[in-house]
Specification:
By secondary structure, the protein is mostly helical. It has helices at about 5-35, 40-60, 65-90, 95-120, 145-165, 165-175, 180-185, 190-215, 225-235, 240-245, 250-260; strands spanning about 125, 135, 140, 215. The strands form 2 sheets. It has a two-stranded antiparallel ribbon with strand order 1-4. Helix 1 runs parallel beside helix 5 (about 145-165), helix 2 crosses helix 8 (about 190-215) and helix 2 (about 40-60) packs across helix 9 (about 225-235).
Amino acid sequence: MFSFQLFSQLLVSGIVIGSSYALLSVSFGVIYATTRIFHFAHAIAYTVASYASVTALAKAGLPLWLALMVGLVVAVALGILIELAAYRPMRRRGASTLALFLTSLGLTIAGSNLIQIVFGPENKPLPGFPMKTFAVGAVTFTNLHLLTVIVSWVCIFGVVVFLKKTKYGKATRAAQSNQQMAMAVGIEMDGVSLLVFMLGSVLVGVSALLFTLGGVASPNMGLSPILIGFIGVFLGDRERFRRSARRLRARSGYLVVRSVAEW
């Protein structure tokens, strides 16, 4: 029998979770659309943002809002480091899309293991958020749910405005459309790539911290959300996915993804 109460509650939950996944998809997509890199190491930025905030709160004694800022800064710094130390040197050597993809997977696995070595396998909470529960008829939700929806869509709208209205956003869109033409008119691709890694890392950090406020940090917490973000990006552009899959030599990509899933 149909239950309107259950339907309403599931609808609210779906909006909250969907908003978070939409933000993850944008964070992954803005990097991929510009660089054509399957940046699965994004999962490490997601995880490190949470652990940095937990450490700043528990060890350094910072207030919650400042600990969250520390998490965002660390996520951005890691995104920049990965681009400068891993992807950029490989691109300059003419590395294939598959080679960059495998590098990203390697960084993800190594990063998760390193986090577990440094912080241990235990889950780490991020306490201090003043959680409140609201009821509207038969539907219940928390202030964190409301915050997640608002912040996620404000960030997404902000990215849209940035890409359409600013000088650097227009340069990014030009690079996404045609890199060769963008370089021909004087757009510096290394700078644009660095910009989108910074932007994507901010967004993934925001998503991670919103999750951790109501959950816990764990060494492998970033893998599942980033995979869902990856799916969201390519369901939105199936033709680009087919072209990218051919470049990745679909069979090899499938074997790698399967190995990671089993791991």
